[in-house]
Design brief:
Layout: H1 11-19, H2 23-29, H3 34-41, E1 45-50, H4 53-69, E2 75-80, H5 85-97, E3 102-106, H6 114-118, E4 125-129, E5 150-154, H7 160-168, E6 175-179, E7 186-189, E8 197-201, E9 207-211, E10 217-221, E11 228-231, E12 238-242, H8 250-256, E13 263-267, E14 276-279, E15 285-289, E16 294-298, E17 304-309, E18 316-317, E19 326-332, H9 339-349, E20 354-362, E21 383-391, H10 398-407, E22 409-416, H11 419-434, H12 440-443
Parallel strand pairs: 1-2, 2-3, 3-4, 4-5, 5-6, 6-8, 7-9, 8-10, 9-11, 10-12, 12-13, 13-15, 14-16, 15-17, 16-18, 17-19, 19-20, 20-21, 21-22
């Protein structure tokens, strides 16, 4: 019997495998053979975390080896709170000299040598997180990032002039992320001829204006949307709004202006938000999380709809799309549940002929008066493919189980609870199965 060994792999395949591993993962594989060791020694992606003096010596040794042997570098990532400016300039200079395309810096306490970065012509992606730029004064002409495609700025000081200088000198930028940056009173994105994706998170409290005909994906996480102005974005395909306060028909106006909008995600609208409708013929994916202000959904081409919250929504789905493939609701249910709550659940679920998945999380269960459910039987019994139920209570509440099964008819039930509650469910389901009246679960509350 022949024994297969790691050496049977050709050198080119080993190098390919190693290129998909992180620098640390590749280092572990280097003990397998000389070929694997050589693949690690020429790894194109360098990732360093410098916490101690010893770490600096290691990084210095590695970078000098790459410089002396002229080993190509695709990605250079450095996380450090202790490296000196001289060390960073040296390592960065080597990376740029060796043609680095992706640069990432995290938590640099000393001033980042931004001017060296801005002069680079090879860079395609630049990510700066918690970097010191306070003493930097950018003027037009200092940047030459002509081939930069992705720019991400997180948790750093940045004023309007610095931002505009960066963007003006990145004509081919495709993706822009700005997250929790301070020092900005406004953000203006204009004349970006290639921009496809923009994400803004807690980085401007006063005004945001975007003028980008090529923009396709926009994500906005903020405390107010009153000063958000999106113009000439006719190709926008997806919008995500989180923790905003909507007023003045803003969202309805926004949706009506984008005839190609396919995906809409709305998360945690502010309490002052007005009630609004979602009307769109192009919309295919809709996700709503912790929002009470949605009124009517009229999207005839909808393929996926999800709702997540702690209250049963009062929205109305005007017309069920023939293309709807995925429909899900996740509810973290309130403690005080009664007949009215189960009726509201049944009425909401009846918006659709069938739901793909309904997930209900209960902290407690309560006795429910079965007789009070009967007058509400006129609402069609909703069909559910998968019903997930999570009950923390350790009690035995058969009437609660009856009310839950009265609110919808699941093809499959997944239950997570105590042994006592699981036995209670089994008993009630067995009773239904053995019941001589096959329609009792539709014509009257379970157990009568």
């Amino acid at each position: 019997m022949e024994t297969a060994t790691i050496e049977v792999l050709p050198d080119c395949l080993i190098r390919k495998i190693v290129s998909y591993l992180s620098f640390k993962e590749a280092a572990k594989m280097s003990i397998l053979s000389k070929t694997w060791l050589q693949a690690w020694l020429t790894h194109p992606n360098l990732e360093f975390t410098v916490d101690y003096h010893h770490d600096m010596k290691v990084v210095d040794k590695v970078m000098e080896r790459y410089r002396d042997r002229k080993i190509p570098i695709e990605k250079f990532e450095l996380s450090s709170d202790s490296s000196s400016r001289e060390d960073i300039e040296k390592w960065l200079g080597i990376a740029l000299q060796n043609g680095v395309k992706d640069c990432r810096f995290h938590g640099l306490a000393c001033p980042l040598p931004i001017f060296i970065i801005l002069a680079a012509k090879s860079l395609k992606e630049l990510v700066l997180t918690r970097c010191n730029l306070k003493s930097v004064s950018l003027s037009r002409g200092v940047a030459n990032l002509f081939y930069l495609e992705k720019l991400s700025l997180s948790s750093i000081y940045l004023n309007e002039d610095m931002l505009q200088t960066l963007l003006t000198n990145c004509p081919l930028i495709v993706s822009f992320v700005i997250d929790s940056c301070y020092g900005l009173d406004k953000i203006e994105l204009r004349n970006l001829q290639k921009i496809r994706s923009v994400s803004i998170t807690k980085s401007s409290r006063k005004r945001v204006k975007i003028q980008a005909p090529t923009l396709e994906h926009f994500s906005y996480y903020q405390l107010s949307v009153e000063k958000l102005d999106i113009v000439e974005c006719k190709n926008l395909k997806s919008v995500e709004l989180s923790y905003v306060t909507l007023s003045g028909g803003f969202l309805e106006h926004l949706i009506s202006g984008f005839q190609f909008l396919e995906c809409l995600i709305i998360v945690c609208l502010g309490k002052g938000s007005e009630r609004f409708n979602i009307l769109s013929r192009s919309l295919r994916v809709l996700k709503i999380e912790d929002c009470e202000g949605v009124g009517e959904i009229d999207a005839p081409n909808l393929e996926s709809v999800e709702y997540i919250g702690d209250q049963i929504p009062r929205l109305k789905i005007a017309k069920t799309s023939s293309q709807l493939k995925h429909s899900q609701i996740v509810l973290h249910c309130q403690n005080n549940l009664n007949v009215v709550w189960f009726y509201e659940l049944r009425r909401f679920l009846s918006n659709l002929t069938s739901w793909s998945q309904v997930s209900l999380h209960f902290s407690k269960c309560h006795e429910i008066n079965r007789k009070e459910l009967k007058p509400h039987d006129r609402v069609a019994l909703p069909q559910v493919d998968v019903l997930d139920v999570d009950i923390k209570s350790s009690g035995n509440c058969p009437t609660f189980v009856d009310a839950l099964l009265w609110s919808c008819h699941p093809k499959r039930l997944n239950l997570s609870s105590t042994v006592k509650m699981i036995i209670c469910f089994i008993d009630r389901l067995t009773y239904l199965k053995n019941s001589s009246d096959s329609t009792s679960h539709e014509s009257k509350p379970y157990g009568e």
